[in-house]
Amino acid sequence: MRALNVTPHIAQNISGRSSAVDGRTTPHAGYAVSQRKRKRIEEPFGWGKTIGGLARPMLRGVEKLGFTFTLMMADYNRSPSMSGNRISRNASITFN
């Protein structure tokens, strides 16, 4: 990647193990911006898994699961705050 003059924007492992991102990447301002953008992109998916019930869906089929995913993401996008009238994890969605 460095031969192509491309900087990888992946998360650095700082838990004590060796990391794929070395010290040449992290000091750049663009890396910090990229990590903030990455967090904003991943937040709805984390919410969908923990609150929206997408971690263990009880549905079969691309159409049904796609509908549930769309519904959960629309619910996440409905309000800028994380509190409010969200669909609970135990909400049941029935299909005919």
Structure description:
This protein has 96 residues and is an all-alpha fold. It has one domain. The protein is 41% helix and 0% strand. Helix 1 packs across helix 2 (62-78). The chain is elongated, with a radius of gyration of 18 Å. The termini are far apart.
Notable characteristics:
single chain, 96 residues, mainly alpha, 0% strand
Secondary structure elements and their pairing?
Elements (H helix, E strand, L loop, with lengths): L28 H22 L11 H17 L18
What's the pLDDT, averaged over the residues? 76
Number of domains: 1
Q: What composes the largest sheet? A: none
N-to-C order of helices and strands: HH
User: What percent of residues are in strands?
Assistant: under 5%
Helix-and-strand structural type: mainly alpha
Short description:
By secondary structure, the protein is mostly helical. It has one domain (2-78).
